[in-house]
Amino acid sequence: MSRGARLAAAAAGVALALAAPKLAPAIVTQLAFLWVMVLFALTWDVVGGQMGYTSFGNIVFFGLGAYCAAVVQRDLGLGYFEGLAVGMAVAAVLAVAAAFVLGLGLLGIRGHYFAIGTLGLGIAAGEIASGWDYVGAGSGMVTPLYPGPAGARDVFFYYYFLALAAACLLILRRLYAGRFGLAINAIRDDEDKAEAMGLRTRRYKITAWCVSAFFLALTGAGVGHLIGFIDPRDVAFAGPTYGVWMVLMAILGGSGTLWGPVLGAFVFHVTQELFWTYLLGWQRVALGLLIVIIVVFFPRGILGWARERWPERFGEVVEEGPQGGGGR
């Protein structure tokens, strides 16, 4: 595809995203959650795909963001938007601080041990929130009421998540193109060799987790207010749903790539919504089958599958063998 064609496609995509609430006002909430899914997949891939550390605990930063924004807004007595802005800022700072402290301990272990450790982290956070009366305990917490007319809240948060997803994509694109991207890819490929070459791996690993935590906290802050209610296990620290979905979406699209998680989030969210609409009662069975299909048939993701099938379209040179066979 030529540069002009890519620019035209990008412009059309941006125009469609901006006009979506006008074109489909009945499904604005679902469209807002589409960008939430994109953020889930992109932020998980920073650590899981680009750096090779499979994390099931990223949902902790999402939950921290949801609770921090709501509590600050409730307790400071500010107006809705002023309180929301302050709450989001506090949520982002606390999530990054939590990622730094947790990273000092957890990112010293590798492989399955790291995955299991982060899994326990998400479960522990859900249990703590469920027993803490200050945030509503197991009964959950109602967020402040949006001051605008009915439906305006969904449109507001649609554009909020769209802007956040665009910012996340552009910042990650910049990070992956520089020294940071090379460093975390080196950690994924061979961490011992990277350390032997003088790379301070712990510093890069913690930085990667902090980047992920920053965007997840801002996502959680928005989701809590979009739904209007924060449940400790089903929303804030929803490991079996959001926590697993962010992993699946990145794998489905192609982990370790920039656009793979975005593609995976689109495919997964649309498929999930179709299941919820047409397979009522069987939607969780169908979703379970979809998860199995993703893991078995797309271990390298859709982009990985496409790269193997059409390597020349991804800029890879295919050399003809002496007998006319192909080889790279």
Automatic annotation (TrEMBL):
| Annotated compartments | Cell inner membrane
Recorded topology in the membrane? Multi-pass membrane protein
Q: Which GO terms describe its cellular component?
A: plasma membrane
Kindly indicate where the leader peptide sits in this chain.
1-19
Question: What keyword terms does UniProt attach to this protein?
Answer: Cell membrane, Membrane, Signal, Transmembrane, Transmembrane helix
Checking Pfam families in the record gives: BPD_transp_2 (PF02653)
Residues spanning the membrane: 29-47, 54-72, 84-107, 114-135, 155-172, 206-230, 242-268, 275-298
GO terms of molecular function:
branched-chain amino acid transmembrane transporter activity
Protein name per its UniProtKB record: Amino acid/amide ABC transporter membrane protein 2 (HAAT family)
In its UniProt entry, the species of origin is given as: Inmirania thermothiophila
